[in-house]
Amino acid sequence: MNEAPKVAAIVVAAGRGSRAGEGAPKQYRALAGQPVIRRAIAALATHPRIGQVVAVIHPEDAAVFADAVQGLDVVPVHGGAMRQDSVRRGLEALAGFAPDLVLIHDAARPLLSHDVIDRLLDALTENDGAVPALPVVDSLRTGETHADGEVDRSRLKRVQTPQAFRYTAIRTAHAQSRSDATDDVAVALAAGLSVAFVEGDERLAKLTYPADFARAETLLTAGLITRVGQGFDVHRFGPGDHVWLCGVQVSHSQGLIGHSDADVGLHALTDALLGAAAMGDIGDHFPPSDPKWRGVPSNLFLTHARDLILARGGIIDHVDVTLICETPKVGPHRDAMRQRVASLLRLPVEGVSIKATTTEKLGFTGRKEGIAAQATASVRLSTVEIK
Ligand SMILES: Nc1ccn([C@@H]2O[C@H](COP(=O)(O)OP(=O)(O)OP(=O)(O)O)[C@@H](O)[C@H]2O)c(=O)n1
Ligand SMILES: C[C@](O)(CO)[C@H](O)COP(=O)(O)O
């Protein structure tokens, strides 16, 4: 039996997005709660046939890139002045991996389905290259006035990315090509390679102008429904000189006893997220009987719940935590807690509320025997995912 080909992907992301209006380069803007580039890379990095992903970035974007792709398996390299310079650098960066096949994709096309990737890779068994394309549906005319010529649209196609090729063939073609080719098919055809069309996808439309973002956001959020989850947790005070609350270390005359770092706020919040997604509770995912969770920071639990939701195409909109204790005082640490939780959930800080209350010296929290926390999370989730 033949071995499966080694497949790599390049995501070109070194452009400045000058047509997309003010703000950060378009590939780093949020689209339905996640950076555009994260969606483009995740589609490739999670595909079972793809073994290596390289992102070609602008040198000034190193920090924002690292933040956007946290947890994804992707190697950054620096791009060039024109798109084709960036592609060439991506191809060179893959020399060590030596793939048989490579997909070259625009970071500005975030809604990439695994079905399109499969169609492209399948077409490479018979061709040097394969590209997704769609028919032109509007009438086309040349020139400025109605008297100018009509264009026969039946022969025209809108060509998208990813564009897939046999690696050695496209690398050689790029090494010999002009930098102003608008895409990699042009480079391949100029080198005499055979390129097949496969069915494209309207959702793959490139984000080029400001209005394209609203259209893509609508596509991503259509059919999502809001769900609210709630969580509750308690930890008892014990010996120690600090407690962890909502990801922040707070000096205190006692510690909290727990299997992990006993961050009661993050535990309640993790349960709220799992509850919104109806995915069990924190004990199901991190059994207290398992020694590997002993002493671990609770941000692991929270980011696990976050990733389960994001992997289902979900959006975390807002979270709200109430810490219930007489001491320590939460107020002086509230801003740091909001910042920390926002960063863990990749939310704007306005999407995170942290509150505190006492129980008027009543009950176990009133007697300073421990701290309780309750939390809610509101999340948009789909029953139909992009597959
Ligand atoms: N020197 C360049 C130019 C573009 N690209 C990437 O190529 C893709 C398609 O290009 P385009 O939509 O034209 O992006 P920009 O060049 O960023 O946009 P603009 O032309 O509006 O500035 C984008 O993902 C872009 O980041 C690149 O990697 N290197
Ligand atoms: C590569 C491309 O996305 C294929 O459709 C397109 O050619 C990029 O063109 P742009 O002018 O660089 O946006």
Automatic annotation (TrEMBL):
Q: Where is this site: Transition state stabilizer?
A: R19, K26, H259, T358
Lineage: superkingdom: Bacteria
What parts of the sequence cross the membrane? Answer: none
Does the entry feature the keyword Lyase, yes or no?
Answer: yes
Keyword list (alphabetical) reads: Isoprene biosynthesis, Lyase, Metal-binding, Multifunctional enzyme, Nucleotidyltransferase, Transferase
Q: Which residues does the annotated region (2-C-methyl-D-erythritol 4-phosphate cytidylyltransferase) include?
A: 1-226
A molecular function GO annotation: 2-C-methyl-D-erythritol 4-phosphate cytidylyltransferase activity
Q: Which Pfam families match?
A: IspD, YgbB
Which reaction is this enzyme known to catalyze?
2-C-methyl-D-erythritol 4-phosphate + CTP + H(+) = 4-CDP-2-C-methyl-D-erythritol + diphosphate; 4-CDP-2-C-methyl-D-erythritol 2-phosphate = 2-C-methyl-D-erythritol 2,4-cyclic diphosphate + CMP
Annotated region (2-C-methyl-D-erythritol 2,4-cyclodiphosphate synthase), positions in chain: 227-387
Return the InterPro entries for the record: IspD, IspD/F, IspD/TarI, ISPD_synthase_CS, MECDP_synthase, MECDP_synthase_CS, MECDP_synthase_sf, Nucleotide-diphossugar_trans
EC number(s) recorded for this UniProt protein? 2.7.7.60, 4.6.1.12
What Gene3D superfamilies does its record include?
2-C-methyl-D-erythritol 2,4-cyclodiphosphate synthase, Spore Coat Polysaccharide Biosynthesis Protein SpsA, Chain A
Signal peptide stretch: none
In this chain, 4-CDP-2-C-methyl-D-erythritol 2-phosphate is annotated as bound at D233, V234, H235, H259, S260, D281, I282, G283, T357, T358, T359, E360, F364, R367
- Pathway where this protein functions: Isoprenoid biosynthesis; isopentenyl diphosphate biosynthesis via DXP pathway; isopentenyl diphosphate from 1-deoxy-D-xylulose 5-phosphate: step 2/6; Isoprenoid biosynthesis; isopentenyl diphosphate biosynthesis via DXP pathway; isopentenyl diphosphate from 1-deoxy-D-xylulose 5-phosphate: step 4/6
Residues with site note (Positions MEP for the nucleophilic attack): R153, K206
The function of this protein is: Bifunctional enzyme that catalyzes the formation of 4-diphosphocytidyl-2-C-methyl-D-erythritol from CTP and 2-C-methyl-D-erythritol 4-phosphate (MEP) (IspD), and catalyzes the conversion of 4-diphosphocytidyl-2-C-methyl-D-erythritol 2-phosphate (CDP-ME2P) to 2-C-methyl-D-erythritol 2,4-cyclodiphosphate (ME-CPP) with a corresponding release of cytidine 5-monophosphate (CMP) (IspF).
Q: Which family does it belong to?
A: Belongs to the IspD/TarI cytidylyltransferase family. IspD subfamily. In the C-terminal section; belongs to the IspF family.
Name used for this protein in its record: Bifunctional enzyme IspD/IspF
